[in-house]
Amino acid sequence: MLREKIGLNIQGLLSPKRSVLMYLCAFFVVFLLIWKGGEALRHQQIKALEVDSFEQLGQLASVLESAIAKYQHMPTLLASNDRVRKALRDGFESDIHQLNRELEQINRITEASDSYILNADGLTIAASNYAGPSSFVGSNYVFRPYFKDAIKGKPGRYYALGIMSNRRGYYFSYPIYEGDSIIGVAVVKVDLTQFEKRFANQHYEFVLLDPDNVVFSGSRSSWLYRVLGELSHEELKRIADSQRYGDKVIEKLAITYQKPFDENASIVDIVESRNINNGEHLNRVSYLKMSLPISQLDFQISILAPLKTINEDIALWRAIFAGGVTITALLFGLAMLRTRMLRERSDANEMTRHNQAYIREVIQNTQAGLVTLDDNHKIESFNPAVERLVGQPLAPLVGQPLCQLFRTEKEGSSPFSSDDLFDAINNLGVKVLTREGSLCYPDQASVPVEMTLCEMQLPNRLSYLVTFHDMTERKRYEQEITQARIDLEERVRERTYELEGANTRLRQEIEEHKGTQRELIQTAKLAVLGQLSAGLNHELNQPLTAIRAFAGNGLKFLDRGKYDQAQINLQHISQLGQHMSDIIARFKVFARKGDVHQGPIAVQTAIMGAIKIMGTRYKEVGIELVVADDKDLIVNGDMVFLEQVLVNLLANAADAILESSGSERGVCIEQKATADDVIICVQDTGDGLSEEAVRNLFEPFFTSKSSGLGLGLGLSISQRIIDAMGGQISASNLPAGGAEFCVRLPRFHSSSVTHDVKS
After folding, report:
1. Which helix (H) or strand (E) holds 347?
2. Domains of the chain listed by start with CATH number
3. By Cβ atoms counted within 10 A, which residue in 99, 261, 351, 441 is the most buried?
4. How confident is the model at residue 538 (pLDDT cuts 50, 70, 90)?
5. Does residue 591 contact residue 526 with C-beta atoms inside 8 Å?
6. Helices 472-531 and 639-659 meet at what angle, rounded to 10?
7. 166 in the Ramachandran plot: left (φ > 0), alpha (ψ -120 to 50) or beta?
């Protein structure tokens, strides 16, 4: 006994220490789980940020590359300008002044930073900023690499800080030839300030790095000319000797920590200085850094997404989770204590005698009407809610069947047998039975209710509980909803009738519009045929004269018995008749009416058909017509309508040449093709299109011809025809003078034929 007591005392002394150790172990495990969970959540959020940032990085790289690369062909265009070559060759002040104005206008249109022309010695003779305080005119850039490349006959590229403007820019250059000799260099500078302003207010920082990892552009001006990495003394000297960044000091960006996150990103910490209360304060900021190369510019663009929000969220999450664990532990302890107290109270106090009184109070005060039935289905008791529903005392109904109080909707006001209800409860195994009906009492209005019947298994006998819920408001709502639905259906029918009438009128107007459009197209055709009538008369008169001559000679040969010669004459007459038939058939097909019918048509065939119609007129007025070689291109369209469009374009080209003051008279038809489209271009040597003509060219009744030479419908109708065939028509001025009209139509593919046949 003594040993047992000593052992119990020792266990009592050891149990508190064991509990403390268990609590410490649990605390350490929970702390480790919170820390590891925070790290996992941080990694997951950084991964999501990486996915979002990588998409934004791709968009940023694409926008930057397109924003800079769209100017790479501008020096080529400037180098091909005759005024530029003339200014370099002659050096007249008037030519240079005009060239300055043109460069200024080109810059204003293209939104480039600067464009200028250098002579063979690197001296700037003309510039777009000739009138500004930092004009390039008179400056020598022979030391710039873009000049050295261009003077050797190669396109040049370079990026640097401008000497005169002190602005960063990307330079494109191209040699200017006079024959086989290079007489100068055309240069275009692209300013990156607009790009930086466009992406300055993003939730991330970005930097544009040159091949030496020097920040050439970025969202923060304090990072400019900083190095993301290490540069040797020789590399720094090479950058300084190139005068790329002028007198800017190249320093290393204050990166204190850098660790790879995965193969696409890394985490870097940068020390930033900020002025707070007139004092400099150093702050360490973490970023997720991702980079993409821009091969076309030999640059690299990087996005630095700040991790401050993620780090703060993880710290908050850890604090909340730790607090939640602490609160949960406290609540668990309180719950255990409360359970113990309730169990002790339950054991100390017997509440059985209060259960019946509690249930009775619930029944008396519930809002639903309750009626109990005995095992013979007679009314046994009820609560006051039933009497309030009926409006009369129900004491006389005690011992009466339920049908004296409740009637179903199917039976109306006549009494019914309740055996079917109790059969469903007793025999069919239905636990709860629900019916809709009404509470009826003599000399009282019926009250719509929902009745619920269920069986109660009491210890000594069988009983039933009937519940009544007032449905007066529900019935009223149902009637209102039904009436609203009827009214809505009536309004829908009326609105449908109005819409059908409006739709019918709209279809009639569309048909009338289509008829008017067809008449306008036919009018345009007849107008072209009217203009070509004189040429058609001449084209047919020559074969007729030859036929008469061959016929007369043939008669003489027959009289002399020279049948071989007569047969040859008859063959000539047949060929001439066939030629006249082809001419008449071409005009006849051209003049016919009809709608656009899509199908495969050869582009060269349509061009040759239009030339047959317009060829006579071109010969009469002495216009040379040049047609490119057949490329076997096939498009989806309508042959007749395509010929009409080409005839209109050829007629307009002839009118433009006849009204021009130039000596050259020529029209060229070219064919171009892409993977999905075919482009037919008609170029003339006229005076070109005015600004007003370019704006209103395809509007009906607009014409730039002399009075009486046109109705202004040809191009408008041509545009409608090309739109109907799924194409586009456009007009522009050629750099060398004259105008160019291009018709773009969808290219025909063999798969479309199979689809059309099946359909």
Report:
1. helix 308-348
2. 70-191 (3.30.450.20), 363-470 (3.30.450.20), 593-754 (3.30.565.10)
3. 99
4. very low
5. yes
6. 60
7. left
